[in-house]
Amino acid sequence: MSLAEQIRAIEERFGEAAVRSAAPREHEELSHLLTGWAEIDAALGGGLMMAALHEWFGVAPSKNFVACREDETRRHAWIPPLGPLVHLVRRAMSCETFSDHAVWIGRRCFPYGGVLLGAGGDRRLLERSIFVAVNGPADRLWVTDLALHSPAVGLVIADGSGFDMAATRRIQLVAKAHHKPALLARPPWETHELSAAQTRWLVRFEAVSGPVYEESNSFNPRWSVELLRCKGMQPDSCPCAWALEWDRGEGAVRLSTAVARQTGDAGDSTNDRRLKQA
Question: How confident is the model at residue 26 (pLDDT cuts 50, 70, 90)?
Answer without folding.
Answer: very low
